[in-house]
Design brief:
The protein is built from 6 helices and 26 strands. It has 361 residues and is α+β, with helices and mostly antiparallel strands. It has a 6-stranded antiparallel beta sheet. Helix 3 links the parallel strand 4 and strand 5. The longest helix has 16 residues.
Length: 361
């Protein structure tokens, strides 16, 4: 009915769902309370409903019943930015809980969280493509990616977006540090548009300075598409500027990006989409384009490429054409100024002219 009325794809959210509902609608987790334990329960609910085949899922951020507090709402907005369904919502006659109503602390933290979500929308949208096409989960527990690591079996206070992003929210009041678990492998603490990164291996990690953000880690071996600017309306832009972030592990990395017009029905079934697949090995990134989209009203530009663990470089080429670059030799991060339409790019390569491919182990 919604699609018939609008002529485009619909958005339906229900609290009463059943097997197969995820093919048609999302779900919200019902009338929760403005209490700290409900932050934690919302993570469990997200994980369960992804297992039920309903990946578009979220809770009423800051709680539905009762009056929230600024600190609780701040932490809930930071967590809620990583719900697939992201909505601050409360009941009649409850205290106003939009960020502005709760003061500068909540407003500033919420703005950063929302911007981070918008930066990551290309990755999230691609996860939903995989959920539609393959039945994959969007939000998943750590043990889905690390099933032989027994420590992950009981973790329900951290969660993953797909296989590459690990989110570790703050779930208690007055919490200035956080003990989080990183399974075996390389993990990078990453904040968009900042150079601060940490290369970590599987371990428990104590994070401090939790005032501004919650920890988000990128898994080694990932190629992550990032939306370079914050959209005021995600369906109302003619141009999309992207960056690629490449985090090699054992000299390999991969990623993908799904694009369609955002409105038409059955774009996958009608082959009206583009799926870019990125693969990295030995200082070369290959870009493969699948699908047969024909729309002309959305331009996707690749502005910059960031490659981690680069030791030395004297030359960078895209499609065998030399490109400008900078190398931060302290952080070993290569930045390439691509500034090209993504659909025109087939390969990106870099090397030291004397020593060839120079990467950190």
């Amino acid at each position: 009915a919604a699609e018939t009325a609008t002529g485009t794809r619909s958005l339906v959210i229900s609290r009463s769902t059943y097997p197969s509902s995820g093919n048609y609608s999302g779900h919200w987790l019902g009338d929760n309370r403005s209490q700290w334990p409900d932050l934690h329960r919302s993570i469990i609910g997200m994980l369960e409903f992804n297992l039920f085949g309903i990946p578009y899922i979220g809770a009423d951020i800051c709680g539905f019943f009762g009056d929230t507090t600024p600190e609780m709402c701040k932490r809930w907005m930071q967590l809620g930015a990583f719900y697939p369904f992201f909505r601050n919502h409360n009941g009649l006659d409850q205290k106003d809980q939009d960020p502005v109503a709760l003061g500068e602390m909540v407003t500033d933290a919420s703005k950063r969280a929302v911007e981070q979500r918008y930066n990551l929308l290309p990755y999230l949208y691609t996860l939903f493509y995989r959920a539609h096409a393959d039945g994959n989960t969007v939000v998943r527990p750590l043990f889905h990616e690390f099933p032989t690591d027994e420590i992950t079996w009981d973790i329900d206070k951290q969660f993953m977006w797909g296989k590459s992003l690990l989110v570790s929210p703050i779930l208690k009041p007055d919490q200035s540090s956080l003990s989080l678990y990183l399974p075996e492998g390389e993990w990078w603490h990453f904040e968009y548009e900042q150079s601060r990164t940490e290369r970590l291996t599987g371990q428990y990690v104590i994070k401090t300075d939790m005032k501004s953000n919650i920890p988000v880690h990128i898994r080694g071996g990932t190629i992550l598409p990032i939306q370079q600017y914050v959209l005021r309306n995600s369906s109302n832009e003619d141009t999309r500027n992207l960056s690629l972030y490449i985090f090699p592990q054992q000299d390999k990395a991969s990623g993908e990006l799904f694009l369609d017009d955002g409105l038409s029905k059955n774009t996958i079934e009608n082959n009206l989409y583009i799926l870019y697949q990125f693969s990295y090995e030995n200082c070369i990134v290959q870009v493969t384009k699948l699908g047969n989209a024909t729309w002309n009203d959305l331009t996707t530009n690749l502005m910059d490429v960031y490659v981690f663990k680069v030791k030395t470089v004297t030359n960078v080429e895209i499609n065998n054409t030399t490109k400008q670059f900078t190398l931060d030799d302290k952080l070993n991060v290569l930045k390439v100024n691509a500034n090209m339409e993504l659909k025109e790019i087939t390969s990106l390569a870099w090397a030291d002219k004397k020593n060839g491919c120079q990467m950190l182990a």
